[in-house]
Amino acid sequence: MTTAQKIKSFTEKIPTADGVCDAFIAHPDDGKKHPGVILYMDAFGVRPYLCQMAERLAAHGYYVVTPNLFYRTRPAPVFDLSFPLTMEDMPQARSQIMAEHAKFKVEDGVADAGALLQFLSRQALAREGKYGVVGYCMGGGLALRVAIQYPNQIGAVAGFHAGRLATEAEDSPHRQVNRVKAALYFAHAENDSSMPQEQIQVFEKALKDAGLSYRSEVYPGAQHGFTMLDLPAGNKEATERHWENLLKLFAVL
Questions:
Q1: In a domain, 38, yes or no
Q2: Residue 127 is part of a domain; what is its CATH number?
Q3: Catalytic residues
Q4: pLDDT at 50 over 60
Q5: What are the backbone dihedrals phi and psi of residue 202, each rounded to the nearest 5 degrees, phi first?
Q6: Backbone phi, then psi, for 135, in 5-degree steps?
Q7: Is the predicted pLDDT of residue 5 greater than 90, yes or no?
Q8: Which of 6, 160, 195, 247 has the fewest Cβ atoms nearer than 10 Å?
Q9: Which stretches of 41-194 are assigned E, i.e. beta strand?
Q10: Which structural domain range is residue 216 located in?
Q11: Among 28, 15, 40, 31, which residue's Cα sits nearest to residue 118?
């Protein structure tokens, strides 16, 4: 495992077809090139905890871009919330988040990925070659769709407590995984109505049938959102397990 390094972090404005996406950037402060990674947020958006996650990943030797997927509404922080949230905070928080999430179009997120990949290709400290993508909650499904859309640019994809990866919908991502050329790691919560065991089985069969290099596993006792320690569902043990597996996957970059 890479030894943690001193990092540099800042906010960047990245032009897209629909405007300007604000993104939190973190990378080792050593003047060397490192593999590029896109880190996709959960539905609660880019906030201090997510930036800390980006910095932790960067400290292990990666050039990390964390885009605000809701930039079409406003720059981050998008929501008027005070983290960490308690169970009592969740009803009011969900009302804000669901209203914004309803406006988000996954196809826009996939299109924006093209601009993010172009941005990475222009950075002097981002290594040439294939990139990594990791996503949480809504970002997990988006990470997989980005690997489907840009197979020649993505070398590793991880998704944590991602939902609806294998539905009856015609555009369900599991129906398109044969286009993926990346190594995959997906971790599911044992208690997650958005990704029940039946869906996990269909998803894993699709990955196997496509002949992909993948790992897919369930974290016992974990709830949807288990990596987010600023939310009630956060689980420290499962989160540390997530870091171990994520760094192991990204070692291929």
A1: yes
A2: 3.40.50.1820
A3: 137, 192, 224
A4: yes
A5: -65, -40
A6: -140, 150
A7: no
A8: 6
A9: 63-67, 131-136, 154-160, 183-191
A10: 7-250
A11: 15
